[in-house]
Specification:
By secondary structure, the chain is α+β, with helices and mostly antiparallel strands. It has three domains: 1-68; 69-233, no CATH class; 237-334, Arc Repressor Mutant, subunit A (Orthogonal Bundle), CATH 1.10.10. 52% of the residues lie in helices and 7% in strands. Strands 3-4-7-5-6 form a five-stranded mixed β-sheet, with helices on both faces. Strands 1-2 form a two-stranded antiparallel ribbon. A hairpin with an 8-residue loop joins β3 (116-118) and β4. The longest helix has 19 residues, at 141-159. It comes from Sagittula stellata (strain ATCC 700073 / DSM 11524 / E-37). One of its GO terms (cellular component) is cytosol.
Amino acid sequence: MVETGEYERARRIQTKILRGILNGARLDDAESLLAAEGMNLADLRDEGGTMPFAAYLRLFDRIAEAQGRESFGLELSTGMGPELVGPAGYIFAASPDLAHAVRSLSSSVFTIQDATAFDVHDSPAPHVPYRITDDDLTPRRQDVEFSLGYVDRLIRLLLGPGYAPSEVWFEHARPARLGAHEAVFRAPVFFDQEMNAIWFQPVDMTRRAPGHDPNLVALMQHYIQLLAQRSHAIGTWTEEVRQVLAGQPGGAELETVCRQLGVSPATLGRRLRDEGTTFRDLGRRHRIERAARMLSETRLSVLEVALRAGYGETASFTRAFRDVMGPTPRNWRNNPSPGAR
């Protein structure tokens, strides 16, 4: 079974998501794939069951390989509906406009999994970034493409056929075949970007959704409030800060983090010191771990990665990288290590 004391401390996702993916894949040997993670098909039939997010990522990647489809996750997303994510999906589909829909999904994503950051940003233009908060969790391409494709699918169901995003960004490298991406999104798609995100035309954010149903929204919100009692709470202030930083690809100032957490800078600093760290150390580790992933997953030069990580030149970036990760950036790119110092 997937419920063990060791895994309870890991990021998790509802098993019904994997069940939907397997149903779409129609594999003959699903049992053998699940067995590699100590699971079986019976685990997926538990409506309240969860599994480690890391195992979900590995299985998603293996399913794509078994299908022989490089863009399997993206292609699969086009056939999914609100029922995949339950109440969160139905709230999205019944929201009055896109801004309300995305903010509702962001606030209720904990009912599905606790491994990602997802929200609406208004500047420099409306966009929704999607980020797996732990940089050690890989492989992620299938999940990221599936997730952005699924959100795009929900938006089309909400706003109708006249909608299309202005652009779509992916952090990972450009695939060998690009046609599927632009066919799905019907918009320009860019790779090796600083975040995974869907960008919108401002007018689409407030355009009234024809299927708005306030009664269904209220009912599903009440149900989600009941689910909140069973959510996976973050146990430390260090993890709270890491979660906030994960939602800000370029990092966040201390005041911004404190405002989101509802504490003063002095209080946060004291609580982090009690846990053996500081906000500065967490911010630096966040930037370096993100840089390590860019080195592993993109074709950006070391200088380009350094600049995106907030360093003006490669010398200071290399020193900081070695302090956190051990090897130099170039050595890491040639032989990525699973753990950091």
